[in-house]
Design a protein that fits this description.
This protein is an alpha/beta fold. The chain contains six helices and nine strands; from the N terminus they run E-E-H-E-H-E-H-E-H-E-H-E-H-E-E.
Length: about 220
């Protein structure tokens, strides 16, 4: 999900419904670089959860043409933005956006949805602006639908065994003021959920501005 949370900027709409977010321009290239060693050379299908504006998934489709990318988002305005961004380039490996709330049945293999044999699942700036049951559902859903050597990539700010930087602590406090169910998730807690679902935390990659990419491996 493109980050529209407190202190991280607001999207700028175009006349065709596209949303343009400052966070995309700051973090897309570092995220793409972190994912590249795991995605290069693969073929198959990748599901993005909470695609937000659609700018990230468009960039991924451009960078990894052998993979088919499926954007999803529960918000109609976000799906409109994703579709509008897709029209700017019409990449053959970028599929149409569809509605998905990870806490509900994913309905993979249905028309307009990817197959239930995913090379990767990607979630960008989702977990800290959602209740904790979204973290649980995301990890469980990825574990059910990834191929045995597939990956779940989760990007955002995180706590580490209850500790976080001063900047992330202030951000966490602003999130919890906006909604008590929001807040930075602890890497150790997410690792526990992954292990319970049969996945392992393979890497924690440091990103700019106190963020990380967590790489969970299936199988």
């Amino acid at each position: 999900m493109t980050d529209f949370s407190p202190g991280r900027g607001r999207p700028s709409p175009f006349a065709d419904g596209r949303l343009d977010t400052p966070s995309y321009h700051r973090n897309h290239l570092p995220i793409r670089g972190a994912l590249a060693p795991f995605l290069q050379g693969r073929t198959g299908h990748v599901l993005e959860i909470g695609s937000g504006s659609g700018q990230h998934v468009l960039g991924f489709a451009r960078a990894f043409p052998a993979l088919a990318f499926w954007p999803s988002d529960p918000e109609p305005a976000h799906r409109q933005s994703i579709a509008a961004w897709a029209e700017t380039e019409r990449l053959g490996n970028l599929r149409a956006p569809f509605a998905l709330d990870v806490r509900e049945p994913w309905r993979l293999n249905a028309p307009g949805h990817p197959p239930a044999a995913l090379q990767a699942v990607i979630a960008i700036n989702v977990l800290h602006i959602a209740p904790f049951d979204v973290s649980r559902a995301l990890i469980a859903g990825a574990a059910r639908n990834l191929v045995p050597d597939g990956y779940l990539f989760v990007y955002g700010p995180f706590a580490r065994e209850g500790r976080m930087s001063e900047g992330n602590a202030a951000f966490d406090a602003s999130l919890r003021r906006a909604d008590p169910a929001w807040g930075l998730r602890d890497i150790a807690e997410l690792q526990g959920l992954a292990e319970a679902a049969g996945m392992r935390l393979e890497a924690v990659k440091d990103m700019p501005a106190g963020n990380n990419v967590l790489v969970f491996a299936a199988g």
